Structures are given as structure tokens and as C-alpha cells.
Amino acid sequence: MADSAQHVPTALTVHKQSRTLEIAFDSGEVFALPFEFLRVYSPSAEVRGHGAGQEVLQTGKRDVLVTALEPVGRYAVQPHFSDSHNTGIYTWDYLYWLGANQQQLWEDYLNRLVAAGFTRETGRDAPMLVEGRSCGDH
């Protein structure tokens, strides 16, 4: 499987302050993929389900961080996110596809959030709000 990758990275850089994973490919393309974008498009079964129509809309992920990035053989990486999600294996081809389609994928995600009645800050994983303040703001 390692030899089947069509897109091979030449550099991977985690930018904690800007919350992006920068990935450069041997073709010359460089993509800056926000952590939130990576998290909501995780290739894990938890996010994608086990078949068409089983996808789970990820909400409340605006502030998610990548806390670790582990290599998987010579064909992928496995990010660990601050919300404890760590089951997605991102192949080089999948990361390239995310980068090449980032604008359309992001617009699709934002439209799905709106259709479900959420914003990037709200959802089942976001802090509960009480009278306009998060529960921790007393």
C-alpha cells in the first residue's frame, strides 16, 4: 500500500499558533489545512460511518487542536486531536485530495452546519451556554 500513493509529501509542518497542518508535495503544491477542517473531514468510521448515508456531522470543532501527529508506515499520518479523537488515518492521497478540494469541502461543511441548525461554535460538542455565557464563566 505504501507504494501506491500518487502524491508524496516532501514536508509536514504543524503550526500550533495558526492551527494548521502545512503539507508540501513532490509535485510542488503546498496546502495549509486548518485543524478544524482536518477534524471534520476525518477519514475515521466515527465520522464517515461504515457506508453511504452514515456520515456524522461534526460540530463544535472550531477550537480543536492537533496534539500529536504519528506516522503510519510510509503512506499516512494519524493526528491526535484535543477532543480525544485519534482514529483517523490520513493517507498522503487523502491529504492531497483535502488540500486540492479544500474550498468546496469547507463550503459544503458550512452549509451542512447551517442546514442542521448549528454554527461553528455550537453543537453537541461545544460548551453549553447559559444566559450568553459558557458554563465555566461564573
Please give a structural write-up.
The structure is a single chain. This protein has 138 residues and is α+β, with helices and mostly antiparallel strands. The protein has a single domain (2-134), classed as NE0471 N-terminal domain-like (2-Layer Sandwich), CATH 3.30.2020. Helices cover 24% and strands 27% of the residues. The chain has helices spanning 35-40, 45-48, 92-100, 102-115; strands at residues 9-15, 20-25, 30-34, 66-72, 76-81, 90-91, 129-130, 133-134. The protein has a three-stranded antiparallel beta sheet. It has a three-stranded antiparallel beta sheet with strand order 4-5-6. The chain has a two-stranded antiparallel sheet with strand order 7-8. Strand 2 and strand 3 form a beta hairpin. The longest helix has 14 residues, at 102-115. It is globular, with a radius of gyration of 16 Å.
The tally of helices reads: 4
* Main pleated-sheet profile: 3 strands, antiparallel
Order of helices and strands: EEEHHEEEHHEE
Write the CATH architecture name: 2-Layer Sandwich
Assembly category: single chain
The structure class reads: alpha+beta
Query: Quick one: overall form?
Result: globular
Instruction: Estimate the helix proportion, in percent.
Output: 10-25%
The CATH class assignment is: Alpha Beta
Please report the distance between the alpha carbons of the first and last residues: 52 Å
Q: Tell how many strands the DSSP assignment holds.
A: 8
Strand content: 25-35%
